[in-house]
Write a structure and sequence with these properties.
The structure holds two protein chains of two kinds. Chain A is α+β, with helices and mostly antiparallel strands. Chain A is built from eight helices and 13 strands. Chain A has helices at residues 7-60, 139-175, 177-187, 207-254, 258-291, 301-318, 340-357, 412-422; strands spanning 68-69, 79-85, 89-94, 108-114, 117-125, 131-138, 297-300, 322-326, 335-338, 363-371, 374-381, 425-430, 438-444. Chain A is rod-shaped, with a radius of gyration of 51 Å. Chain A starts with 6 loop residues before the first helix and ends with a strand. Chain B is an alpha/beta fold. Helix content of chain B is 42%, strand content 20%. Chain B contains eight helices and twelve strands. In chain B, the strands form three sheets. A five-stranded parallel β-sheet of chain B has the order 2-1-3-4-5, with helices on both faces. Chain B has a four-stranded antiparallel β-sheet with strand order 6-7-8-9, with helices on one face. The longest helix of chain B has 15 residues, at 59-73. The two termini of chain B are 25 Å apart. The chains are: A alpha+beta, B alpha/beta. Chain A binds chain B through residues 235-237, 239-248, 250-251, 254-256, 260, 263-264, 267, 270-271, 274, 402, 405-406, and chain B through 9-12, 14-16, 18-19, 22, 32, 55-56, 84-86, 104-110.
Chain lengths: 446, 226
């Protein structure tokens, strides 16, 4: 319940509890402090009364006829006294005093219960040693007085607590208004409104929240724009192959010669293959983003490389290209944590590129090495390479350098880059020889 | 009719070239902006089919430079933009840069050919799809020629020569101008070919159809009172 309570409820509960506790503490302290002072005053009073009796006893007692004195004042009822001659004969006593001795001791203060009544007693002998004097006061009266004081202290609490709660409620509501304003501002936003929230008029405590929200908005905006751009690019890129297929088919239908018709039909089929490849690459790219590194497990790079090379060798040989795997020490097989399916896609795309661009009659080499603790996968070819200024751009989606075969989707290296990112690996491109050949290296951090 | 096709996609360019040839055009095909620019600077094309996303030089820039040259020579080469960019913004940008028409991929070959014919007609000041001069009717869309309401069988090249002469009726066309309309780059130009086609046309239609201006070229007289 507490966890789900609103901030308003929490603040109110905490504030009211704190106020009540402090108040009760103050009351208790005041009660005990007052009681102590009070006791001292009343005790002093008893002593004083006893002193008066002592003085009076020594002079007048012999002439006194009655055994008890009448009550002269209503408060007199609370104080009682006994005067014992020689300590054993009750010589004089007040009306409210009992018949038996008020105390057993003969000097100082004592608390005694007689016939169910508690008494605070001060006892003393007169100067002559003739009379024992007990002056007593009912304890109940003291309690009543002390409780009255405590009660008076507590009374305002019962009145003021509800009032305080109301005032606190108003104060807290007012204090939380910036938060409510922020909530309604965010709540009323359209999903595509990612403009920054205004933090200039917000209280200091809310500013970090607004700043974080704004930072989140910026990130969401960037990723949405990326998505939008990608969708637009993808639609755009799919239009051209579809247009080509349609145009080739229409040329074939209108063709008068057999050779012309077959040429157009062959091209239409080629166009279908190209569109299929593009769609395949688009799906792969989408899958890299969804797969992520969710299925990470130790992968043997050399095994995956061997598989991919075997699959691509026939195509490569058709172009007169040799594929080689240089896996170094077979006993010390480097393992990389990752998704084997994604690593396979990464290698296939790198090899596809190299096979396509390397000069016929040359070889494409796949190397797996250790470099200062990192595991490096490299694919090297003897093609024209990529000029320095183009190297960053070829990683962009749908970017095709001039002179690239039309069959390329422009996505291969984007896919490689994305898979490398997912595996926390870095991508490096460098020429094999000055101005010639290309080596793409993927550094997997160990 | 000699048309310049600028398209960087190999398969699509191949198809458009073949399709426009089927419609009777001689087609030069360039795959990047710089080559297109050079071709446009040296050859007089009847029309241009232009892709926008081109390597080396953007399509819109090619178009702007063409329009600058057009303005200097006081002429207008019809340009049809053929692109995958389909937003209204893209169309506005293309048309404002000086394009005469805009077609979005994927498109229909028949529509492309028809739009090109319309552009060429408008550019030559002959908005009627049926060209009529001296009792000869030429229907460019149907590739058909009628003389005194009777169909006349013409070869593709003969048709192209007649089409060029009728579009420019009343103007002298030099032999090389006619050749340029007939052949794309890479086509082998037969010597005396134009003379041969003119001879055939005179035989199949009537001798006074085309006047020879010795040392200059050929002329199809305009109708006196149209």
């Amino acid at each position: 319940m507490w966890r789900r309570a609103s901030i308003k409820q929490r603040l109110l509960a905490l504030a009211l509890t704190a106020i009540t506790l402090v108040w009760l503490g103050t009351t208790a302290f005041t009660y005990y402090d007052a009681r102590e002072e009070f006791d001292e005053v009343l005790d002093a009073h008893l002593v004083q009364t006893a002193a008066l009796l002592v003085v009076q006893t020594s002079q007048d007692l012999a002439e006194l006829k009655t055994e008890h004195t009448p009550l002269l004042h209503k408060y007199a009822r609370r104080v009682a006294f006994q005067i014992w001659e020689k300590g054993n004969r009750l010589r004089l006593y007040s009306v409210n005093a009992p018949q038996q001795p008020l105390a057993n001791n003969e000097h100082g203060f004592s608390d005694n219960t007689i016939d169910g009544t508690r008494w605070r007693v001060f006892s003393t002998w007169d100067d002559s040693g003739e009379y024992l004097i007990h002056v007593a006061e009912r304890s109940k009266v003291r309690d009543k007085l002390a409780n009255g004081i405590a009660g008076n202290l507590l009374k305002p609490l019962w009145f003021s607590l509800p009032l305080l709660a109301l005032l606190l409620w108003i104060a807290v509501t007012h204090g939380l208004r910036p938060l409510e304003k922020l909530a309604s501002e965010v709540g009323q936003r359209k999903p595509d409104n990612l403009a920054a929230l205004d933090a200039s008029s917000a209280p200091r405590e809310v500013v970090p929240l607004i700043e974080r929200l704004n930072r989140l908005f910026v990130r969401i905006d960037a990723s949405m724009q990326k998505e939008r751009r990608f969708t637009a690019d993808a639609a755009h890129e799919l239009r051209t192959p579809v247009a080509a297929i349609k145009a080739q088919a229409q040329v074939a239908r209108a063709a008068t010669g057999e050779a012309e018709r077959i040429h157009a039909l062959d091209n239409a089929i080629l166009g279908c293959d190209r569109a299929a490849h593009l769609i395949e690459q688009l799906l792969t790219l989408a899958r890299v983003d969804t797969l992520g590194d969710g299925m990470a497990k130790p992968c043997q790079l050399n095994v995956i490389a061997a598989e991919v090379i075997s699959a691509l060798a026939p195509t490569a040989l058709e172009k007169g290209v040799q594929l080689e795997l240089l896996a170094g020490d077979a006993n010390n097989v480097p393992k990389v944590r990752g998704n084997p399916e994604l690593l396979r896609i990464l290698m296939r795309n790198l090899l596809d590129n190299s096979i396509q661009h390397t000069a016929p009659g040359t070889s494409v080499q796949v190397g797996i090495t250790h470099e200062s603790g990192d595991i490096c996968l490299s694919v090297s070819d003897n093609g024209p390479g990529i000029p320095e200024q183009e190297r960053a751009r070829v990683l962009e989606r749908f970017y095709r350098p001039l002179g690239t075969q039309a069959s390329g989707s422009g996505l291969g290296l984007s896919i490689v880059k994305r898979i490398a990112e997912v595996h926390d690996a870095t991508l490096q491109m460098q020429p094999m020889h000055p101005e010639q050949g290309l080596r793409v290296t993927v550094h997997f951090k160990s | 009719m000699r048309v310049l096709l600028v398209e960087d996609d190999a398969l699509l360019g191949d198809a458009i070239q073949a399709g426009l040839k089927q419609s009777g055009y001689a087609v030069d095909w360039m795959q990047d902006g710089i080559s297109a620019e050079q071709a446009l600077a040296t050859e007089p094309y009847t029309a241009v089919v232009l892709d926008l996303g081109l390597p080396r030089l953007a399509g819109l820039e090619v178009l702007r430079r063409l329009r600058n040259r057009n303005a200097q020579k006081n002429m207008h080469t019809p340009v049809l933009i053929l692109t995958a960019m389909d937003t209204v913004d893209d169309r506005i940008k293309g048309l404002d840069a000086g394009a005469d028409d805009y077609l979005v991929k994927p498109f229909d070959m028949g529509e492309l050919a028809a739009r090109l014919r319309a552009l060429i007609r408008r550019a030559s000041g002959q908005p009627d799809p049926l060209l009529q001069v001296a009792g000869v009717q030429l229907d460019a869309a149907a590739h058909r020629v009628l003389y005194q309401d009777k169909p006349v069988e013409l070869s593709a090249r003969e048709f192209s020569v007649l089409h060029a002469l009728m579009l420019n009726a009343g103007k002298v066309l030099s032999r090389s101008q006619l050749e340029e309309q007939l052949y794309a780059w890479g086509d082998e130009i037969e010597s005396n070919a134009v003379e041969v086609y003119i001879h055939h046309l005179r035989r199949k239609l009537f001798p006074a159809l085309v006047e020879t201006i010795r040392g200059v070229g050929y002329l199809m007289p305009r109708d006196k009172a149209a």
